[in-house]
Structures are given as structure tokens and as C-alpha cells.
């Protein structure tokens, strides 16, 4: 009986690990942190902060990301399976939970729909019960629909060649603006400047991750931006976007952000420059090196957002 209980407990733990892996909690930081920035700015600039509205907003952001990630797990199943077989990575090729058979492939399809619907309920509640502003639902839809349909057929933005631009918008300007808007009911002009470098850096996160999946995506006919461009042109785009991120951080200071931001941004800039040099030297061709680069790339994105939080503190 004890042995059977151990087997049961082990099975339950494996399922739990599968659910956690499927949801990819560490990758939620790229959406949560910009939302925190927008919420913090609302308090810093106007002295207004509603805890309930903030909590519901954070939950909605997480639900939208869950819907996005789970839809990708279902619709990118074939290429993710190939990617994991060729070069296992923590930053690309999905969670690996579905190819491993830990959970049924149907699970992420249904959870993506359910989390999408729950996020919609929160959006309706915020706009009509908490009176957070007439554009609350619009802002939510601007994040939820591109996220859900990034991988979902038949729309599948990732195959259009511009899906990465939507991701840059949805994880850049949008969460900062949304966090601010649901607190105050308007969007301060400085939000636009903060959203640019954050959006550029998350765009590069997606682009660099596609280098890892390039063979798998090409073999399955997935026509994302990198497949369309090829690696050589992909490097040019990556470097160009990095330079734009550097420039817009400087421009944001000129637009009114504290000059302290430049000091906080310095280590982030150093990492970004190092990544640029590594791209020029084609170090992405080594899968192990590429995985390190992907990790540093996410750090650049999170560091950019953190720079602004610290600057306003």
C-alpha cells in the first residue's frame, strides 16, 4: 500500500510539474514588470493607487500571457517537438511538456480559451464596475487578441511576418500604458517614450529565440520573421533594433525622464553591446552559446524596464 501511495504521489507531482512547466512562470516577468512600471508611475505622478484595480489588472495580464503561451504550446506542437530533439533550450521550442507526454496536447488548447475568457471577465469588471475608463476593454483586447492569435490558426500572426511587431507592442507600450490608464483614466505622454525601448528589447527577445528554432521552423513551413529574412538579415535587424533601443532610452530622458535613468541603464547597455558583438561574430551558431545569449537578452529587456522604475524612485 505504501509503495502504491508513493507511485500515486509521484504521478501527482509529475502532473503538477507539467502544469507549472506549461505555464512558464519566469516568462511572465516580461509582461508583469512593465505593468508594474505603469502602475507605479500613476502613483508617482498623481499620488493615486487603487489596490483592487491593480490586483485585478495583474491577474488579467497573467491570464492573457497564459492564454498566449498555452495556445502556442498547442499550435506550435510539431516545430517545438523537432526543436527540443535537436537543441533543447529553456528559452525556445516551447516548454517541452506536451512533446514529453506529461500532459495531453488538448490541455493547452482548452486552458488558452478558458484563460482568455477569464481575462475578458476581468476587463469588463474593471471598466463597468470599477469605472477605470472607457478604453479599458480596448486596451485589454489589444493585448489579448494578438496574444491568443499569435500562434492560433487560422489567423496565426507568427506566420504573417509581422507577428513579432505585435509582441513588441503587447509587451512594450501596452502593459505600461494599461497599468497607468486603469488607475487614472488617461495616458501620460511620457508613457510613449518608456514603451519604445521596452518594446524594442522584447522584439529582440522573440527574434533571437527564433534563431534557436530556425531549423525546426523551416522544416515545418513556419514562416516567422526570421525564416522569411534568413539568419544574415536577421542579425542586421537585431542589431538595428538594439541601436534603436539605446537611442530611445536617451530620447526618453530628453522627453522628461530623470537623468538617473542613464546611470541605471549603463550595465544594461553593456550587456546589449556585448550581445551585438556576439551576433556579429555569429556566436549564435553554437546552441549552448545561443542559450546564454537568449538569457542575457531577456535580462536586457527586464533591465530596461527596471531602469525606469529605479529612475522614478
Can you put this structure into words, describing what you see?
By secondary structure, the chain is mainly α. The protein is 77% helix and 0% strand. The protein has one domain (27-312). The chain is globular. The termini are far apart. 46% of the residues are buried. The mean pLDDT is 90.
Task: Give a brief description.
The chain has 313 residues and is an all-alpha fold.
Structural class: mainly alpha
Give the ordered list of helices and strands: HHHHHHHHHHHHHHH
Distance between the termini: 58 Å
Largest sheet: none
Q: Roughly what fraction of the amino acids lie in strands?
A: under 5%
**Rg of Cα set:** 20 Å
Strand count: 0
Please give the domain count: 1
What would the principal axes of the Cα set say about the shape?
globular
Number of helices: 15
Global mean pLDDT = 90
Q: Spans of 5+ residues with little confidence (pLDDT < 50)?
A: none
How helix-rich are the residues, as a percent range? over 70%
Key features of this structure:
77% helix, globular, mainly alpha, 313 residues, 0% strand
Write the layout of secondary structure elements.
Blueprint: H1 2-23, H2 29-46, H3 51-75, H4 77-86, H5 97-100, H6 106-128, H7 136-148, H8 163-170, H9 173-184, H10 190-212, H11 214-219, H12 225-229, H13 231-254, H14 260-280, H15 287-312
Amino acid at each position: 500500500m505504501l509503495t502504491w501511495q508513493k507511485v500515486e504521489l509521484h504521478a501527482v507531482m509529475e502532473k503538477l510539474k507539467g502544469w507549472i512547466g506549461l505555464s512558464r512562470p519566469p516568462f511572465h516577468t516580461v509582461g508583469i514588470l512593465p505593468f508594474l512600471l505603469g502602475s507605479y508611475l500613476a502613483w508617482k505622478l498623481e499620488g493615486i493607487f487603487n489596490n483592487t484595480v491593480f490586483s485585478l489588472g495583474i491577474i488579467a495580464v497573467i491570464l492573457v500571457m497564459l492564454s498566449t503561451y498555452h495556445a502556442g504550446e498547442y499550435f506550435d506542437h510539431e516545430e517545438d517537438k523537432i526543436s527540443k530533439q535537436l537543441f533543447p533550450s529553456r528559452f525556445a521550442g516551447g516548454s517541452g511538456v506536451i512533446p514529453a507526454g506529461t500532459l495531453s496536447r488538448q490541455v493547452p488548447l482548452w486552458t488558452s480559451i478558458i484563460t482568455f475568457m477569464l481575462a475578458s471577465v476581468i476587463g469588463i469588471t474593471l471598466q463597468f464596475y470599477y469605472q477605470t475608463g472607457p478604453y479599458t476593454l480596448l486596451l485589454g483586447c489589444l493585448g489579448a487578441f494578438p496574444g491568443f492569435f499569435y500562434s492560433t490558426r487560422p489567423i496565426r500572426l507568427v506566420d504573417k511576418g509581422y507577428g513579432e511587431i505585435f509582441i513588441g507592442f503587447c509587451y512594450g507600450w501596452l502593459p505600461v500604458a494599461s497599468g497607468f490608464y486603469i488607475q487614472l483614466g488617461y495616458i501620460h505622454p511620457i508613457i510613449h517614450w518608456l514603451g519604445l525601448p521596452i518594446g524594442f528589447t522584447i522584439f529582440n527577445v522573440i527574434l533571437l529565440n527564433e534563431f534557436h528554432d530556425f531549423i525546426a521552423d523551416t522544416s515545418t513551413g513556419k514562416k516567422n520573421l526570421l525564416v522569411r529574412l534568413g539568419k544574415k538579415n536577421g542579425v542586421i535587424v537585431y542589431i538595428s533594433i538594439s541601436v534603436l533601443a539605446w537611442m530611445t532610452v536617451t530620447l526618453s530622458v530628453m522627453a522628461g525622464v530623470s537623468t538617473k535613468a542613464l546611470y541605471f541603464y549603463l550595465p544594461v547597455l553593456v550587456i546589449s553591446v556585448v550581445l551585438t558583438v556576439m551576433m556579429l561574430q555569429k556566436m549564435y551558431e553554437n546552441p549552448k552559446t545561443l542559450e546564454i545569449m537568449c538569457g542575457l537578452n531577456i535580462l536586457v529587456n527586464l533591465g530596461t524596464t527596471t531602469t525606469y522604475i529605479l529612475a522614478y524612485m
